[in-house]
## 1
Amino acid sequence: MNILISGGCKNGKSFFAQRKAKEMAESSGRPLYYIATMIPHDDEDHARIKRHISERAGWGFTTIEQGKNLADILDMPQIDKSGVFLMDSVTALLGNEMFDDEGNYVETAAEHVRESVLKFARETGSTVFVSDYIYGDADRYDELTECYRKSLACVDRALAAECDEVYEITYGMQERWK
């Protein structure tokens, strides 16, 4: 079962996703993987990573650091593709791929990420994807931010169509949409 979990920042998405992935792994006896996509750039990023590591300590996750090219994990010989994966997050993955190390915009990134997450979902069949709901407000932003928001919405729509369950987490409350 593939699951998409979306919602606002710091609303409990990651913890909810961890519980879902752990339940899936325990009920099937399969290995449990955590795909960490954030490439830290500042102290706030490092603090968030540290918090997420402490939150999943003792849960049985094997961590895979993969900030770009998600589908490359499928070719890693040490990975059991029949395992349960928690991919946190689509938002960070898109940002990492949409802007290169020099900060230049990569036009093909959204399509690449969309195809990569769909391939991953189809080949594993047991992935919990976490994304941020950042495209719902009415404010207008600069051109690159708008492009990023639209790109994330496109990727999330494709994932929602592919996933068996879709949840929105708002203020710690879960709404199941599919």
## 2
Amino acid sequence: MNKQLLKLLEQNARYTTADLATMLGMSEDEVRAEIEQLKKDGVIRGFKTVVDWERLDSAYVSALIELKVTPQADSGFEDTAKKIMKYDEVETVYLMSGGYDLCVIVKGKTFQEVAMFVGKVLAPMKGVISTATHFVLRRYKELDVVLCGDEGDDRGNFWL
């Protein structure tokens, strides 16, 4: 497995096979074959674009939801996690150590939309003991991409 290739693709999935071949000292055919094998093996699961939604009028709200869950006898947390991850509002589901069991990252158009999803879908779900919702107020860095530039923080200048 070519970990250097994976690191480069993780940095910028838009590198061409020619770019990657040059950086890795490989032929383009070798790079293409390696990428196809990594996809076939399930190592590469997809390619994503990181969007700074705050720069658009169509911004959204995201929240980190802590879930305490009762593990099931045969599957532990798997069944609950699989059920949760099927919802379109859910971006990410992690099994956690520490004070809660599942971390669910949810997005919606408004705070109320996210709150309603938590209250009507996640909280009453079988096996869910409790939820704690933390709304994301600003994203500074996501997936190794810096989202905040030199525009500064104007919170202290509200009354000026």
